[in-house]
Write a structure and sequence with these properties.
Distance between the termini: 32 Å
Structural class: alpha/beta
Strand content: 15-25%
Radius of gyration: 19 Å
CATH topology: Rossmann fold
Strand order of the largest sheet: 3-2-1-4-5-7-6
Number of domains: 1
Order of helices and strands: HHEHEHEEHEHHEHHE
Bound molecules: S-adenosylmethionine
Length: 305
């Protein structure tokens, strides 16, 4: 099963040293600790989001006045939304004050304070003062909500007529190394993905109000009363040699996987991972010249009639 994180590494922000290796609900997530990871991820993923947002803009020829970035985190993608929609006002919405504070800081740094804002919103119920929007963008945030169907309905209810709801969920898992990278047992990335799928499922089941629905995003958008549901997948294809930021993102991802999956990874995989993460090792992620980045994210959209 691919959740389209491929890089759940992005998302493994749950508090460690908690003594509850199996508690992964959003309430356990230490999102403020994730700020640098989310920001670096957004930077490396810029080509993918640039393409996705220009596709989205082309799908809204009538213009877009107000955009809500639902589950915006530190606002890194909100900034890309501001660039892709230069006439729009952008609101970064998130339950986490620390992330909203960082978003405000970044908007000011980018000289965008005038046409941006933040709002504390927790889906599905505490949707607060969210005004009717022409575009609601919810990227990798919905899967942190126990009842995803209720969250989609709540967001659909805050669309202006003709407004678009765009969800980024699913895609293909990230690949960065050859299957056989010269030491350890070939196929480490595939095994880590399987562990991550288990982690993800536990995370979802432990969320408050967790409900299990078929994750057919176009069907869920349609069930919320929206029209013209469609999905389009965007590829991030950064061949070797990878930029320093790309390498840092991967090192970061594997470091967090190393911590979170310690109990589930086989001993030989942990030994291989330790070599990959060793800055002195010629064959580690810092130094080898064959590291690349290949991943896909899917955007699902539908429109309020
Ligand atoms: C993986 S981050 C994604 C951030 C950003 N959208 C991106 O693509 O980089 C998930 C975000 O969802 C937010 N989130 C978690 N639970 C939420 C909820 N119930 N309602 C709205 N947002 C939520 C988190 O605070 C976090 O900022």
């Amino acid at each position: 099963m691919a959740h389209g994180h491929g890089d759940h590494g992005h998302d493994q922000g749950h508090r460690q040293g908690h003594g509850h290796a199996h508690k992964h609900g959003t309430k356990d997530m230490d999102w403020s600790r994730m700020i640098p990871h989310l920001e670096r991820g957004a930077e490396v993923y810029t080509p993918l989001y640039t393409e996705a947002l220009s596709w989205l803009r082309a799908s809204r020829p009538g213009g877009t006045g107000l955009i809500v970035d639902a589950g915006a985190g530190p606002g890194a993608i909100s900034l890309q939304l501001a660039e892709a929609f230069p006439d729009a006002r952008i609101i970064a919405a998130d339950p986490e004050e620390a992330l909203l504070a960082r978003a405000t800081e970044r908007f000011a740094e980018a000289g965008l304070a005038e046409r941006t804002g933040t709002l504390r919103v927790e889906l599905p119920d505490a949707i607060g003062e969210l005004p009717d929007a022409d575009l609601i963008w919810a990227a990798r945030s919905l899967h942190h909500v126990g009842d995803q169907r209720a969250a989609i309905a709540a967001l659909a209810g805050r669309l202006a007529p003709g407004g678009t709801l765009a969800l980024v969920e699913g895609g293909l898992p990230l690949r960065s190394l050859p299957r056989d990278f010269g030491f350890g047992r070939p196929g480490l990335e595939t095994r880590a993905d399987a562990i991550e799928d288990e982690w993800f499922d536990e995370m979802r089941r432990s969320l408050p109000g967790a409900e299990s629905h078929v994750e057919d995003w176009p069907a869920l958008l349609t069930a919320a009363g929206l029209k013209g549901a469609q999905s389009r997948t965007f590829l991030l294809d950064l061949p070797a040699p990878l930029s320093a930021a790309g390498r840092e993102m991967l090192v970061d991802m594997w470091q967090r996987r190393r911590g979170v999956f310690e109990e589930s990874l086989a001993t030989d995989d942990i030994a291989a991972l330790d070599r990959l993460l060793d800055p002195e090792d010629e064959q580690g992620l810092y130094r080898r010249d064959d590291v690349f980045l290949l991943v896909a994210h899917t955007v699902h959209t539908a429109v309020k009639g």
